[in-house]
Amino acid sequence: xxxxxxxxxxxxxxxxxxxxxxxxxxxxxxxxxxxxxxxxxxxxxxxxxxxxxxxxxxxxxxxxxxxxxxxxxxxxxxxxxxxxxxxxxxxxxxxxxxxxxxxxxxxxxxxxxxxxxxxxxxxxxxxxxxxxxxxxxxxxxxxxxxxxxxxxxxxxxxxxxxxxxxxxxxxxxxxxxxxxxxxxxxxxxxxxxxxxxxxxxxxxxxxxxxxxxxxxxxxxxxxxxxxxxxxxxxxxxxxxxxxxxxxxxxxxxxxxxxxxxxxxxxxxxxxxxxxxxxxxxxxxxxxxxxxxxxxxxxxxxxxxxxxxxxxxxxxxxxxxxxxxxxxxxxxxxxxxxxxxxxxxxxxxxxxxxxxxxxxxx
Length: 361
What we know:
This protein has helices spanning 5-13, 90-108, 153-161, 191-198, 285-288, and strands at 26-35, 38-43, 47-52, 71-78, 86-89, 112-120, 123-128, 131-136, 167-176, 181-185, 206-215, 218-224, 230-236, 257-266, 269-273, 294-303, 306-310, 316-320, 341-350, 355-359. By secondary structure, the chain is mainly beta. The chain folds into four domains: 5-95, CATH 2.40.50.140; 109-191, CATH 2.40.50.140; 200-277, CATH 2.40.50.140; 282-359, CATH 2.40.50.140.
């Protein structure tokens, strides 16, 4: 331990110690003494440092179970404190080291393991090397992404909570030590592998897949890629069948095997179609139906525009509200009822637009 200020000043000016530690520097030191709530350190045989109180505990865990002679890294808090020794901190050093380690992981693109601590509607709170971070829902892999019918936020949160205490492999997406911000991504791990697989897929390819999720806007299917590995794509509700579909669950279930055609590969997303592999029934609509023809049809659905009518398994027509009655009506339900069969007159046919107009008048 330095005995007085003159001795300290002499050492600072000597050739033996041209660059003495400054406040904020990380220094390597050796444990020279341990007391209740205090640890003394020897720094290059020149300075004595003291770590005490809350500064004894660090994020990296390196200061646990220290013994005389152990080497450790500490941060300089004061060059000289009231005891005439250098005030040091394990807590600050551990913080710096922990964040530096994470920064190195980000720069190298290394895959690390994160433990899930808690969940909210935006994503998952995670822990990496004693530092807490956030894994947004948008950065979850396809396997863990919470697909919930209707986007119900409470159901999404319930699914996310099921991951608590599990460990996910992630990459660091963004890091800011000053703001103590750490954002990680599970999806990023598969980015390069996925990009290679995407390059092996082209519009027009036909794939065999299995339905992994049914949502209100379509179905997701998992399929094999030529270069090996599995990918997931979306078949939008408009591409499931030629006829109008109220909800995909009326036709499909998770686990169903389907054949689909790739119609678009854009921004890492694959869009597919089932109806592309089916003959367009509207091509023969003009042969089957003609203007002025009387046809029987079942009302499937009504809205403010009119009634949607099933003429056969594949052709659906629309009876506009103005064609339902010679009287002015407010709601289609004033004239027709869902699931009832009525006789209509064909008033327009547009096969290329997949439209057929009907009238009850």
